[in-house]
Specification:
heterodimer; A: about 400 residues; alpha+beta; Cytochrome p450; five-stranded mixed sheet; three-stranded antiparallel sheet; globular; B: about 110 residues; Ubiquitin-like (UB roll); about 15% helix; binds protoporphyrin IX containing FE; binds FE2/S2 (inorganic) cluster
C-alpha cells in the first residue's frame, strides 16, 4: 500500500543511482531525527542533495526542496499516488479497498475529490466554530486547576477525535471507546498486530455509521457524501468506507501533532506567548508560521515511467518521499528558516501543493485558531516540565509522544 | 500570443502574454501576477485562482463543468461572472480578456 517505512535495508544501491546522490537517512529511526525532528529536517537541507537516495526503508528517493516538490506534485501523470502491490511488470491483484481520494490520480482523483471540497470549505465549516470552542473549553476545564498537564494526551489527542466524530456523524455516546481506538491506531507503542486489529475495529464502526445513514440521512459529512455523484453514480459502500478511513486517519494524528509542536514552541518562548495573549489578532499569522516550522506529514509518489527530475535520472517504479517538513526549511523560499518570523509571504508546504493538497486544511486551521484563542485566554504563562522533556517519533508523520507542561 | 489583463481588487493592472493551450491561471502564475494563488496547481481543487471574467469574453467561454461549479461555491466573494482561471484554456478568441481578481482568495 505504501513504500516500506520498515527496517529493510538495501544491500546494493540500484545501478541508476549515482554514488554522490546516496545519503543515509532512515525515515523512522534516524537518531538525530528522533532527538529533534525539525532540526534534522534543516540539516537535510544543509547536508544532503536536494533529491537523494537512501538505502533505508526499502530503498527510496527523498525530495527536500520546495520548488522540486512543487514540480513533482504538479505532475501526477509521472509522479503517481497509485501504489502497486505487485512487483513492477506483473499484474495487480484484484482492486479492493482504496483510500479515497488520496490513492487515486487525476482525472479520476478530481471526481473523487469533488464531493469533499464543499463540505470542508472554509464557508461550510464556519458553523462548527462554536462547537470547537465548547469542546476546547471542556478540555481546559479538566486541567486548569492542576497547574499542569500532559498536553499531548490531555488536550491534543481528544480535541480532533471529538470533532471528527461530530463532523462525520458518529454516535457521541461512543466517544470514549472511539477515542481509545484512535489513540491505539496512531500510537507508536502498539505492535503491528494490535494496530491492524484496531484498524479493523475502526472500519467496523465507520461501516455501521455509513449503514445507518444509508437508511436515514442526517446533517453530517457521511450523509453529504452518500448523496454525492461520482462519475455519474452514487458512491458504493466500499468507496464510502475509503473516504471515511482517509478522513479519520488524515485528520487525527496530523492535527494532534501540529497542535503539540506549536504549543511546545510557545512553551519555550515566553515573549511570543505574551505577545499573542496581548493581541489575538496575530494568531492566524502565528499559526501559519508555526505550521511552517513544524511540518508533520511526508508523502510518497511512485514513478509511472523513467523520468529525469531536476537533472536526476529516476526509473519507473522508483518511490520518492516528499519531505514536506524539510521543504519548509529551504532557504531559497524561507530566508533564516529556523527563525519564527511573523508576516512571511511565501506559502509553506505543510499541506503540500498540487491536486492532493490537504482537503482538511480549513478544518485544521479553524481548530488551531479556536484552540489557541481559548488556551491563551485561560491558561497562565506555561512552560515545559524540565523533569520530563517531550519525546519524538518519525515515520510518515513527525510526531511527539508526550508533552508535559506546567503553569503554577 | 494572446493578451490577457488581470486587474487586482485595488485597480492595479497586469497585462500578460499568454500561450495558446495553457490555462489563464498558468499565464498569471508564470508572470507573477499577485492574487492568483493556485494552491492546487490547476486541478479544480482549491478555488484560489478565482477571478471575475468581463464580457464579452465570459460569453465566449465554455460553461464550467461539475468540478469547477462545485469549487466556485467554495470560493469567497463569488459573483455571477466568477470562474476558476485554471479551468479556462487560452484560445485566440480570448485575446484581450480581462480578468478581475477578488479582494481575497482565502477570506471573507
Ligand atoms: C495540521 C493538520 C494537517 C496536516 C499537516 C495535513 C497534511 C496533509 C498533506 C500533506 C496532504 C497531502 C498528501 C499528498 O499529497 O499525498 C493531506 C491530504 C489530505 N488530508 Fe490533511 N492534513 C491535516 C489535517 C487534515 C484534516 C483535519 C483532515 C480531515 C478533515 C484531513 C484530511 C485529508 C485528506 C482527506 C487528504 C487527501 C486529499 C486528496 O488526496 O485529495 N487533513 N493532508
Ligand atoms: S488552481 Fe486550484 S482550483 Fe484553480
Amino acid at each position: 500500500m505504501q513504500p516500506d517505512s520498515g527496517s529493510h535495508r538495501l544491500d546494493t544501491i540500484p545501478a541508476h543511482v549515482p554514488p554522490e546522490l546516496v545519503y543515509d537517512y532512515d525515515n523512522a529511526r534516524d537518531p538525530r531525527m528522533l532527538e529533534d525532528p525539525h532540526a534534522r529536517m534543516r540539516s537535510l537541507i544543509l547536508e544532503a542533495p536536494p533529491l537523494f537516495f537512501s538505502p533505508c526503508n526499502g530503498g527510496q528517493w527523498f525530495a527536500t526542496r520546495k520548488k522540486l516538490i512543487m514540480d513533482i506534485t504538479m505532475n501526477p501523470a509521472v509522479y503517481s499516488n497509485v501504489f502497486r502491490l505487485a512487483p513492477e511488470g506483473q499484474p495487480e491483484p484484484e482492486q479492493g479497498f482504496r483510500m479515497l481520494p488520496i490513492m487515486t490520480d487525476p482525472p479520476e482523483h478530481t471526481a473523487y475529490r469533488a464531493p469533499l471540497n464543499q463540505p470542508l470549505s472554509a464557508k461550510s465549516l464556519a458553523g462548527l466554530e462554536a462547537a470547537i470552542r465548547a469542546m476546547t473549553n471542556e478540555l481546559i476545564d479538566q486541567v486548569l486547576d492542576a497547574g499542569r498537564c500532559d498536553f499531548f494526551s490531555d488536550i491534543a489527542e481528544p480535541l480532533p477525535v471529538t470533532l471528527f466524530m461530530k463532523l462525520a456523524g458518529m454516535p457521541t455516546d461512543r466517544l470514549v471507546e472511539f477515542r481509545h481506538l484512535a489513540t491505539q491506531a496512531t500510537s507508536a507503542t502498539v505492535d503491528h498486530e494490535t494496530r491492524s486489529a484496531t484498524f479493523k475495529q475502526i472500519a467496523g464502526i465507520l461501516a455501521e455509521t455509513i449503514k445507518s445513514r444509508q437508511e436515514k440521512r442526517e446533517e453530517d459529512l457521511i450523509s453529504r457524501l452518500l448523496d454525492a455523484t461520482i462519475q455519474g453514480h452514487p458512491p458504493t459502500f466500499q468507496e464510502m468506507l475509503g473516504y471515511s478511513v482517509t478522513l479519520f486517519l488524515g485528520g487525527l494524528e496530523t492535527v494532534v501533532n501540529a497542535l503539540s509542536f506549536g504549543v511546545r514552541h510557545l512553551a519555550r518562548d515566553q515573549e511570543l506567548q505574551a505577545k499573542l495573549r496581548a493581541d489575538p489578532s496575530l494568531l492566524p499569522g502565528a499559526i501559519e508560521e508555526l505550521l511552517r516550522l513544524y511540518g508533520i506529514a511526508s508523502t510518497p509518489r511512485r514513478l509511472t515511467r523513467d523520468e529525469v527530475c531536476h537533472g536526476v535520472q529516476l526509473k519507473q517504479g522508483d518511490m520518492v518521499l516528499l519531505l514536506l517538513p524539510a521543504a519548509n526549511y529551504d532557504d531559497t523560499a524561507f530566508p533564516n528558516p529556523e527563525q519564527f518570523i511573523l508576516g512571511r509571504t511565501e506559502p509553506h508546504m505543510t499541506f503540500n501543493t498540487g491536486p492532493h493538497r490537504c482537503v482538511g486544511l480549513n478544518l485544521a486551521r479553524l481548530e488551531m485558531k479556536v484552540f489557541y484563542q481559548e488556551w491563551l485566554k485561560r491558561i497562565p504563562p506555561f512552560r515545559l516540565d524540565p523533569q520530563a522533556p517531550p519525546r519524538f517519533m518519525g515515520g510518515f508523520n513527525l510526531a511527539i509522544t508526550t508533552l508535559p507542561l506546567l503553569w503554577k | 500570443m494572446v493578451r490577457i489583463t488581470f486587474i487586482e481588487a485595488d485597480g492595479k493592472e497586469h497585462e500578460v502574454e499568454a500561450e495558446e493551450g495553457q490555462s489563464v491561471m498558468q499565464a498569471a502564475v508564470n508572470n507573477l501576477v499577485p492574487g492568483i494563488l493556485a494552491e492546487c496547481g490547476g486541478f479544480a481543487s482549491c478555488a484560489t485562482c478565482h477571478a471575475y471574467i468581463d464580457e464579452p469574453w465570459l460569453g465566449k467561454l465554455p460553461p464550467p463543468d461539475v468540478a469547477e461549479e462545485g469549487m466556485i461555491e467554495c470560493a469567497f466573494h463569488v459573483r455571477p461572472s466568477s470562474r476558476l482561471t485554471c479551468q479556462l484554456q487560452v484560445t485566440p478568441a480570448l485575446d484581450g480578456l480581462v480578468a478581475r481578481l477578488p479582494v481575497s482568495q482565502t477570506e471573507e
